[in-house]
Amino acid sequence: MRTSFVSEYRKIVTTRTWWVLLVCMALYMAFLGAGVAWSVAAAPGAEDSGLAGGPAAVAASVYGVAAAFGYVFPVIVGALSVTTEYRHRTIAPTFLADPDRFRVLVAKLLAMVPVGVLFGVVGTAATAAAGAGVLAAAGSPTLLDDSATWLLLGRSVLALTVWALLGVALGAALTHQVVAIVVVLVYTQFLEPVLRLGLGAAGGVGESIAKLLPGAAGEAITGGSIFSSAGLSGLLPWWGGLLVLATYVVVLGTVGAVTALRRDVP
Amino acid sequence: MEPTEHPPSDGTVTVRSLTKHFGTVRAVHDLSLDVLPGRVTGFLGPNGSGKTTTLRMILGLTTPTSGTATIGGVPYATLRQPLRTVGAALEATSFHPGRTGLDHLRTYAPLAGATDQRCRDLGDLVGLSAAGNRRVGGYSLGMRQRLALATTLLGDPRVLLLDEPANGLDPEGIRWLRGFLRHLASEGRTVLVSSHMLSEIQQSVDDVVIIARGQLVHASPMAGLDALSAPRIHLTSPDTDALAALVKLQGWDVETTDDGRTVVVRGTTTSQVGSAAHAAGLEVHGLTDRSENLEDLFLRMIAPPGDPVLDHREPGSTPTGVDA
C-alpha cells in the first residue's frame, strides 16, 4: 500500500497540471474574495442588507467563497488523477504494477489527500487574504480576530480536501477525461445552482433534498456561504455536510471500482 | 544494477486454450504455447492476428473468454510484486507527455522496489541519460521505445514481454536491442518479443511462435522453421526433350517454365539435381537453388487458407506490397 501511495503521489506531482490549476484557483479565489468583500463592505447599510445576520453572515459570505465557488479546482485535479491515466494510456502500466485495481483506487484517494489539503489551504488563504484586505481597506472589521472566522477557514480547507477526493472517485466512475470534465463543469456551474434554487424554492421535501446536493454539503462543512447567507438555501450542520460529501466519495468510488475500473484496459 | 533475488518460481509463460472473442470477432482462439526461460522467443503474426490481445491476457489487462495464462505457474494478477517478476512493455505510447523520462521511471519505481539511482542507471543503460530530464512529449518513437524498455527492467524481472520493441528504432538501435535481449536471455530470463516482421527478429530469436487470425500456426526453435522452407531447384537446359525425359526418369515433382527449357524441382537439393543431370549427360545452362526464404515461408504460413497469390509466388521475390 505504501509503495502504491508513493507511486500515485509521484504521478500527481511530476506533471504541471497540479500547480497550473493551483495558481488559477488562487487568482480566482483572490478575485472573488475581494469582490464579495467589496460588495459586503460597500453595500449601503451593509449591516441591514440582504446579508443580514451580522458578522457571522459577513464572514461566511466572504471567507466561505473558496468552498462555495472554488471547489471545482480540487474536483478537477482529483478527476484528472484518474482520467489522464486513461487518456495517455498509462493505466496499463499502472495496473501492471499493481493488478489489484481497488488498491490502486484507494492509493489514488490517499495520494490526493495532501494535494487536496494544499488546494484547500491555498484557495482559502487567497480568499481570506484578498477578502480581509478589501474589508480592512474599506474600513470594515475583518473579523479575523474572531475564532469563529478561523474555524470557518479551517473547515473550508477540510471541505476542499474532501472535494479533491470526490474528484478522484468521479474520475474512477467516468474514466473518459473529456466526459469527466464536462460533467464536472456542467454540474457545478449550472445544474447544482439551478437545482438548489429550484428545490429550495419548492420548500419541504425539495429543500431537504437540496441540502443533500454535493455543493450544499460542501458549503455546510464550512458552515455557510453567500448562498445560505442570502437565504437561498438551508444547510446541514457541518458534520452532516461532511458525512454527505464523504458518502458521495464512497458511492462514486464504489461505482467506479465495480464498473469502469473492472473493464478490460484500453 | 543492484542484484535482486529472483523468486524460486521458474519463468515459464504458459498459455492454455486461451480464447478471446470481442462480440463476433475471434481475436484469439484456442491458443496454447509455452515461452521458456533462457531463450528469446519471437512472437510473430501480421497486424490484427491477436498478438497484443494475447499479451494483454497474459498480463491480466484483458479478461479471456476462456482458457488460462500463467507466469511461473500463477496468473499475473496473483503475483505479489509483479514488476519484480515480469517486465512488460505493451506500446510505446503509454507515457504522460508532460512527465520527464526519469520521472516516468520514478512513478513506477516504488512498486518495483527500485531506487532513484536505479532509475538513473536504467536511463543510462538504454541510452537515454541525456534525455532523462526532458519531457516525454518531445521524445522520438525510438526514445519512447527505450524508455519503455527501461521501465520493464525497473524490478529486475525474470520475465520480459515486449510488444513490438523494435518499432521506431533505427538500424543501430535494432542491433543494440538484439544484443541486449540476447544478453538478458543469457542471464536465464524469459524474453518474449512480438513482431509483425520475421526479418526484424529472425537473427535474434531462439524460438519462434507464429499466429494468424488468432490461432497458432507454428511453434518451434528457429532452426525448425528453416527446415520447413520449401526447397526449389531451378534447372535450365537448351535440350527440352532430354530435360523432360530426365524429369520423367527421376519422377521429380516439377513445374515447367520458359518454354520447357527450365524446370523447377521441388523437394530436393542442387547436388542431387546436378548429379542426375550429369549422369544423364544433359547439357546444363543453369542450376540454382531458389528455395523459399523465411520471409516467404512466413507469409505463406500466415496467408488466409486458399489464398492463390501466395501459394504460387515465385520464390525469391520480395514480399513488398503483399498485404497479408
Oligomerization category of the chains in this entry: heterodimer
Task: Let me know the number of strands of chain A.
Answer: 0
Q: Could you state the CATH homologous superfamily of the largest domain in chain B? A: P-loop containing nucleotide triphosphate hydrolases
Walk across the major sheet of chain B and give the strand order.
5-6-7-3-8-9
Shape of chain A: globular
Element-level helix/strand string of chain B: EEEHEEHHHEHEHEEHEHEEHEHH
Q: Major β-sheet of chain A, in short?
A: none
Strand content of chain B: 15-25%
Number of domains of chain B: 2
Computed CA radius of gyration of chain A, to the nearest angstrom: 19 Å
Largest interface: A-B, 25 and 35 residues
- What is the helix content of chain B? 25-40%
Determine the strand fraction of chain A and express it as a percent band.
under 5%
**Structural class category of chain A:** mainly alpha
Structural class of chain B: alpha/beta
Number of helices of chain B: 11
